[in-house]
Amino acid sequence: MEMLTQGRDERSPQARGRVLARIGQHLWQEMGTVKGAAIELMNRHPDVPSLQAHRYACGLSQDQAATRYNETTGHQTTLGGTSINAWETWARTRGRSGSPPSLSSLLILAAAYGRGPLDRADEHISPGDLVAEAYEHLAPEDQIALKGLIPHATGAAETQPEQGTYQTGPDRGAAVPQGDITGSDFTLTAPTVEYGNPEIYVYPLLNPAPGQLLHLDWSSFGYGIERLIQQIKNVGRRIDVDACFGINEAGLVMATFLASAAFGRCPIGYLKCNKGRDRDFISLDRASLYPDLPKAPAIVLCDFEVKHADVVGFITREIRERYPGAEVYFAVFGAMTKERNLQVASFDDLTGAGIMRAADFKAVFIAATMSPPGIEPPLELR
After folding, report:
1. Domain 176-380 class?
2. Rounded to two decimals, what is the model's pTM?
């Protein structure tokens, strides 16, 4: 099998694509599954997005993928390779260029790639798996529709779960066994106060349905908040805080608990973010709440998750402009990892590491690590 180095590749994009397609097809022959081959290919080449990796696992060029797409629709479409390229560019750049596939196109692609390299397989592929890294850059209506899709379990006998064992409800997707989503604790060295303890105990959130949002129940949510409180108490020095600010509703719930349990019922602020048509544009709603605080206050920002978007950087700049000289701490429930291994060795293995470092926080507290497309709080708090 022709190998492709992990380092800088001097081949043209077309030549590199042909090599990756051969590797993907070989992995499929070894593993017997398109999804498994795509995951292994992404593990070896992290710059390859899931949408592209599934095509490579089928051994297809972009033009061949377009032909497969048209065959899947019974030749009712005349899609070309340029559309496949635009979709994969969008996935690779996280929405900064290219164009996103529609939900209907994702459904057709999932069926097309499920036919495997030889066009004779019948593997179910979730459309959510195809856009795992760029899910949040889809149109809102497509996100909602994808979230409601139930992953298909092939060849598994249907069993009736014991009452109280599974998390279910409207738009929950697949049932998630409670207790199985919390992995083993590991130590992570995070930015902290001067002479403080930089080691925090973090746990991975294990998603049994990759490519789908992981929905948390109140027990899982509360466990994460307790972990943040534990980290704050073990930083090695007393942190006197003037206010806790919650970013959107999920962050507000976190701020309420932290203010009560860790900071003597300090004042609570609320930061409601509005996203424009450009997903990278954020503004603060007039409904946001800013309590009166002393000069140069100590503030804890609470956010439910940190991914690629620099929401927390924008918020921090706004806070420091409103409260000059503010010392800002950051408490986040879930931090997305760059690789698929959630037990990261370094803080810089987190997707938002650069964002958090640039914000120059006094200290960072993280309850858990997570995989794309992310996690959803109880009652779908926003």
Report:
1. alpha beta
2. 0.59
